[in-house]
Amino acid sequence: MVDQQGALTGSSGEAVDSRTLLERLQRSEQVLEQLCAAGVPGVTEDAHAALRQEVSALRQMRAELKMLLDRGALIADTSHKLLNLPPEEMESGIRGALALLGQHVKAQRCYVGLLSDDRSRLLDAYEWCAPGTEPLGLEAFRGRSVEAFAWTLGEFQAGRTVTVTDPSMLPPEATAEHRLFAARRIRAYVNTPLSLGGRLVGWMGFDAVGAPRSWTPEELNLLGVTGSALVTALERKRRDALLLQEKEQEQRARSLGIIAAGLAHEINNPLAYTTGNLEYLKQRMPCAHTPEGLAHECHQVLDEALEGAIRIRRIVSDMGAFSLKDSDEVEAVDLEAVINSTLRMAANQLRHRAQVVRDYEPGMPRVRGSRTKLGQVLLNLVLNAVYAIPEGHFSEHRISLRVRHSAESVVLTLSDTGHGIPPEVLPRIFDPFFTTRRGSGGMGMGLAICRDIVTALGGKIAVRSAPGEGTTVEVHLVPAEQAVPELATRALAPSSSGKRVLVVDDEPRVLDMLKRLLRGHELVTASNGREALERLRADTSFDVILCDLMMPELTGVDVYQAVRERWPGLHERIVFITGGAFTPETQRFLQQVGNRVLTKPFEPAHLRELVTSAAARLPH
């Protein structure tokens, strides 16, 4: 199979997909508003009221999705800048990141403090202040004792975020905090602890000056997610130069993995009810008295909005795969799927540089490896090819990926039409810390890591290049001994309706959407794990329990363990819902229990089939 396409065809960046979806949602809203207009012939008052309600819901959905996408873009942009700063630009970069965050949440100050190893002194500090706001003076405390702020540090040591909306409510032991707030006119603040490897290393915070305010859950979450990238950046500044180079790739991958998982989870929740509600609207349209031309337009708009949502879902799925923790487990990997996923992830870097040519030999066997590690190798090689090609000459350059196989090996050949590698440099390209891109963020670890991964899997990697003639990389991989066995298909009972379903999710709009999509079944909802257990104490006669994995207080894992202990057998009826933010512990748990998993956003038909089949295959 040979497939040639430009970077703009078949692959699109997150920004384009996000903008497309929001535009389509706005168009849907406008079309429905036309139907709501007074004087549309044949439309009853009840139909008008229902349409007005749908317009309001669609408008709110669009606003919430825009807010989440904007926040995700801010986190990604801020983290990318921090994680790629050379040491000499670290201080200015951190202040720039704090300015972005402070302006985004409309705070008057944004700051970060880094503690010494024994947590007795303030080792480092940075702050940003809005124009006209007096500095907190945190940077002047560098090297000084933090003993006076014992109460705040105690809260941090316990892992608690300090959220204050009225400084007068602070406890008596927080005397130092009282004095500081009075002197700096602080009316509200939030400080979150920053940890590394379970150890408190500092804190990050926002101040409201002159006027009181509250802090939203979204703003608290923004502090927490951005804090991990800040910790990585600040810790990197403290290390010895050689140790820094040695560990930087690992820290970058870990931080980006956390960010990717967090963004996937944050986007998948609104995406779940966005796609579900769009499907619902599509099924309900047109109304009985909708003019034929307008009905066709409504369906077209909804189809296009759904297409945009599906493309975003694919991008988020790739982010989730990237964020999975590396494992030493070797499995049979579909190399073609890994290549396609990698190219989607690198779409933004490719779009202005080169056309992508893919040539896969039919009947390709799976290879010995792990999807995550082979994805890391491919992403490194693709980005190296990208950086060898100048911007602005898209039509003149190509990046080709060719896969061939024999009984002994599967060979991936990646070629580019870039500037090539000088002969004096070529023998050193696999040396750790050797790079020709030191000034532009290169660390010299990419190809060294690629070689280590490939050789550990029993393969080999070779590079051919010459100045002005581009570069060709050949990766030889070992075919898997046998294909991944297909799971035996369970015999399903005939479809039926009227199942009793308990749905547990902390996102109200997901619960509302599930009620619409599972009409015909009896749904009982719970907004958290504790409420779910209370429902079960009163009544355990549920055919299926749909339970979100990642919830505050009691997680889906906690609910499962409590159900298994108190009502043996009922735990087999749990189907887990997830937005994709798996911790390593959660991954191990899902592998051990074997319960079915429903990933957000889910397709309505798949959801209904899962509820029916899950209920049918379990004994009552």
UniProtKB/TrEMBL annotation:
Q: A cellular component term (GO) from this record?
A: plasma membrane
* UniProt modified residues of type 4-aspartylphosphate: D548
Tell me the SUPFAM superfamilies matching this sequence.
ATPase domain of HSP90 chaperone/DNA topoisomerase II/histidine kinase, CheY-like, GAF domain-like, Homodimeric domain of signal transducing histidine kinase
Q: What CDD domains does its record include?
A: HisKA
Q: Which residues form the Response regulatory domain?
A: 500-615
Q: Which reaction does it catalyse?
A: ATP + protein L-histidine = ADP + protein N-phospho-L-histidine
Q: Which InterPro entries does this one have?
A: CheY-like_superfamily, GAF, GAF-like_dom_sf, HATPase_C_sf, HATPase_dom, His_kinase_dom, HisK_dim/P_dom, HisK_dim/P_sf
Keywords for the protein's UniProt record, in alphabetical order: Kinase, Phosphoprotein, Transferase
Q: Does the keyword Transferase apply?
A: yes
Positions of the Histidine kinase domain: 262-481
- Keyword Transferase listed: yes
Q: What is this protein called?
A: histidine kinase
E.C. code: 2.7.13.3
Molecular function per GO: histidine phosphotransfer kinase activity; phosphorelay sensor kinase activity
